Each structure stands twice: as C-alpha cells, then as structure tokens.
C-alpha cells in the first residue's frame, strides 16, 4: 500500500540543515521553531520539505489550516482578487469583499442580536481591539483573564497570557489592570473543588465594578487543550451580565470547525458579547476579525479603530472561500468524525500506557494527551513529550506540543485529511508513544 508519509533522508535532511545554517546569520535567535524542517510545498494534510520528505500534518500551522493547505477554493479566490485589487486600505477607501465578509461573520457568530465586525491582521491584534472596544463601551479599565490562557505576543496579549516562559519572560512591565483568575482544569483541580467558587474567591482583590471585560477561550489552546465545561461558560455568561462586564470569547484557535461546530462556544449555548477570530478564518492568509453586539462595537469614536493592512482584499477573498468550503464540503461533519477517531485512538494509547499518558481530553477534532512521569504524582514529563514529537517526525508525522509545562501533545490536523492519511498518522503517533514509553 502506498503510504502518504515518505521519508527519503535523515531528519532534518541536508538541504534543511544548510538553510538552518543560513538562518543563523540572518534571522533573530529569539524566533523559535518547533520542527527542524524547511517546507517546500503543502497540499491538503500533506507537507513536503526541501529534501523531498513528505509528512502528514497534525499541526495545521497551529490551527490555521482547518480547510487544508492550498485549498483550491482559497487559491483561486486569492489569485482572482489579487489580479483585480491587492490593497486599498479600508481606512482610506472601501471595497466590497470586506463588507461581504463582515456580513457573513455577523451571520455566523452566535447571538440573536444585531452585530458589527472589523478586520485586522492577527489574533493578537483582534484581542487588542476587543479589549479597546470593551473599555470604550463600559468606560471601565479592568480585564479578567484566565490561568493557562494565551492571547498573543503583543504587550497587551502578553499581559493577558498566563504562561511566563517563553511568552512573557524579560518583556515587562506589562499592561496594568489585568487580573488573573483560575480556569477549570479537571485533571489538576483538587477533588471536589467547584471552579465557580474558586473564580469568585479570586475576585476578593478586584474591584468588580471596574471590570470592563472577561476574556475566555472555550478550549484553552496553548494552555494545553483544556475544554471549559459548558455549565461553567454559562455561569461566566451570567456573571458578566450581572456585573456589567463584556464577555469576550477568543475563538482564534477554536473557531472555524475545529471542535465540530463553527465556533466552540456553541457547544455551551452561550451568546458572547464579542468574538475574536483569526487562524483558520483566512485559510493561510493573514486576517483576523472582531465581531460583536452592534451597540458595543459602535461605541468607539470614529477613527478609533483602524489598521493599514487589516481586512486586505486578498485576505477577505480567502476568508470568504474558507466559509464556502465549510458550507459546500460538510467540513463541520468531517470535524466531528475526525475528532471521534482521534479521541478513540488517544484513549487506546492511554489504556496501553496509563503511567505515561495521564489525561486524554478535547472537543471535536481539538484533542490532546497530557504526558506525565507516573499516574499517581501527575508530574509533567516534557522531556519524553519532546521525544514523542521527534520520533514521530522521523517517521513522517508533524506534531506540536502545548501546555504550561510543555507536556501536552495536541492535534490540529486539517479537517480535509483523508481517512487513510488520518489512520497512518495515528499509527505513527501510537508507535512513537510506544517507543518512548519503553
């Protein structure tokens, strides 16, 4: 049987090693890279490096490629748009793709109320603008952010992010009036503890009447793929309403089908005030959105929002093509099926290695396993986690880690992955865990 993953050289290969030598003389050492390969091309769920090695991609550009690498609809839409208009700056003069995408997102984002949208360049920039808008609307300064959260690498993004190393170390002082509150982390929470009680206790040092917004990921992404229980999201919604705070839901990584619904917050039946989107919205093109209640989004003075490249015509065309792909190719249904198969395999791996695979969790195709030294102590095992990633790469599978301790292996494979590619990738993952556990 012809296999999708084909390894022709050692990993990294000679051309990848040569490019890495060039990189040392040209690129800042502060820029980290998870895998030592250099990519030449990619299609669907397969990535080929400069040495001719083909890998099955379980990382998806950190969740950017739910619709797959170089999706034909996206490629054609970008090609056609760039041939007519590549840039105009919506802050200067307007163009229809921006408007059409805003209309689409206003329709798709949960909430039975009138909405408005704006577009920027990245998830961090979307978060920045969501907080700006929340402060403008409430005339309050304080923001609540969760432990293990990740909201970007800008100064405000870092201030909201819970993990110090590598994201915050050495970059302070940070933006004031950001308060960290506990997140539900079932695997590591004391038995019998109520998350909502812990949340309320943490507010003893916060002037609740000064809180402009609470920002939450429905599934903590970089923090370790930790799902926020639906009932707790509903309690949080109630708390925001009772206290006049804007509920900002960060769907940068969870959005666009990753969890089996277009937006992860839909699993809880919650209507957020503002939703931020990015990553798979653009299918590989840089674009991010902020979508929210009309009265909140319109509270900002004219000229208070804007960016040179945000909502670039080509990026808007790509995003519209991604949405068409979801509508025409049943990608939400595919996400559910992929998620069921991945979770089933991860649980089987855990059954074989209960002292190594401490927890298996996720939502839809956003699944992960947390690796520990032993089941009793639950001590994080980042060294062997790295070993699993390296072993899998040598066999042709691209994996990414996550978590506060770097001991979580997450799955973000494109949803267009074929059944054969998915099975091959899961088999490689299974063998990698077996080898490292032994």
UniProtKB/TrEMBL annotation:
Pathway: Amino-acid degradation; 4-aminobutanoate degradation
Gene Ontology molecular function, alphabetical: (S)-3-amino-2-methylpropionate transaminase activity; 4-aminobutyrate:2-oxoglutarate transaminase activity; identical protein binding; pyridoxal phosphate binding
Domain of life: Bacteria
Leader sequence residues: none
Keyword Ribosomal protein: no
InterPro entries (alphabetical): 4NH2But_aminotransferase_bac (IPR004632), Aminotrans_3 (IPR005814), Aminotrans_3_PPA_site (IPR049704), Class-III_PLP-dep_AT (IPR050103), PyrdxlP-dep_Trfase (IPR015424), PyrdxlP-dep_Trfase_major (IPR015421), PyrdxlP-dep_Trfase_small (IPR015422)
Keyword field contains Transferase: yes
Record keywords: Aminotransferase, Pyridoxal phosphate, Transferase
One Pfam entry name: Aminotran_3
First-level EC class: transferase
Reactions it catalyzes: 4-aminobutanoate + 2-oxoglutarate = succinate semialdehyde + L-glutamate; (S)-3-amino-2-methylpropanoate + 2-oxoglutarate = 2-methyl-3-oxopropanoate + L-glutamate
Catalytic activity, EC: 2.6.1.19, 2.6.1.22
Cofactor: pyridoxal 5'-phosphate
GO BP of this protein: gamma-aminobutyric acid metabolic process
Family stated for the protein in its record: Belongs to the class-III pyridoxal-phosphate-dependent aminotransferase family.
UniProt-recorded name of the protein: (S)-3-amino-2-methylpropionate transaminase
Protein species of origin: Rubrobacter xylanophilus
Gene: gabT
């Amino acid at each position: 049987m012809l296999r999708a993953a084909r390894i022709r050289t050692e990993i990294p290969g000679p051309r990848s090693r040569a490019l890495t030598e060039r990189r040392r003389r040209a690129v800042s050492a502060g820029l980290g890279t998870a895998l030592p390969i250099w990519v030449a091309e990619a299609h669907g769920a397969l990535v080929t490096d400069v040495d001719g090695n083909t890998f099955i991609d379980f990382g998806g550009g950190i969740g950017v490629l739910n619709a797959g690498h170089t999706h034909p609809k996206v490629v054609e839409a970008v090609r056609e748009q760039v041939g007519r208009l590549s840039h105009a700056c919506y802050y200067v003069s307007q163009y229809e793709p921006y408007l059409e995408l805003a209309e689409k997102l206003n329709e798709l984002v949960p909430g039975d109320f009138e909405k408005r949208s704006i577009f920027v360049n990245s998830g961090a920039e979307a978060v920045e603008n969501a907080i700006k808008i929340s402060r403008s609307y409430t005339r309050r300064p304080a923001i609540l952010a969760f432990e293990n959260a990740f909201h970007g690498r800008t100064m405000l993004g870092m201030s909201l992010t819970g993990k110090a190393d590598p994201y915050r170390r050495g970059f302070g002082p940070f933006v004031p009036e950001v308060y960290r509150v506990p997140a539900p982390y079932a695997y590591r929470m004391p038995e019998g503890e109520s998350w909502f009680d812990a949340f309320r206790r943490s507010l003893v040092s916060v002037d609740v009447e000064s809180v402009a917004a609470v920002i939450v990921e429905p599934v903590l992404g970089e923090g370790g793929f930790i799902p926020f229980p639906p009932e707790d999201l509903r309690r949080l919604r109630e708390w925001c309403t009772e206290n006049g705070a804007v509920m900002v839901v960060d769907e940068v990584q969870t959005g666009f089908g990753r969890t089996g619904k277009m937006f992860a917050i839909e699993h809880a039946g919650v209507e957020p005030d503002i939703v931020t989107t990015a990553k798979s919205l653009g299918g590989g093109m840089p674009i991010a959105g902020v979508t929210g209640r009309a009265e909140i989004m319109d509270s900002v003075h004219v000229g208070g929002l804007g960016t040179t490249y945000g909502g670039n015509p080509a990026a808007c065309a790509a995003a519209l093509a991604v949405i068409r792909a979801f509508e025409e190719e049943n990608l939400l249904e595919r996400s559910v099926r992929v998620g069921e198969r991945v979770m089933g395999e991860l649980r089987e791996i855990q059954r074989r290695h209960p002292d190594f695979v401490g927890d298996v969790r996720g939502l839809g195709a956003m699944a992960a396993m947390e690796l520990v030294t032993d089941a009793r102590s639950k001590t994080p095992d980042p060294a062997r986690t790295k070993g699993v990633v390296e072993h899998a790469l040598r066999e042709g599978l691209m994996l990414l880690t996550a978590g506060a301790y770097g001991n979580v292996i997450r799955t973000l494979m494109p949803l267009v992955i074929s059944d054969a590619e998915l099975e091959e990738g899961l088999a490689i993952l299974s063998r990698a865990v077996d080898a490292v556990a032994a």
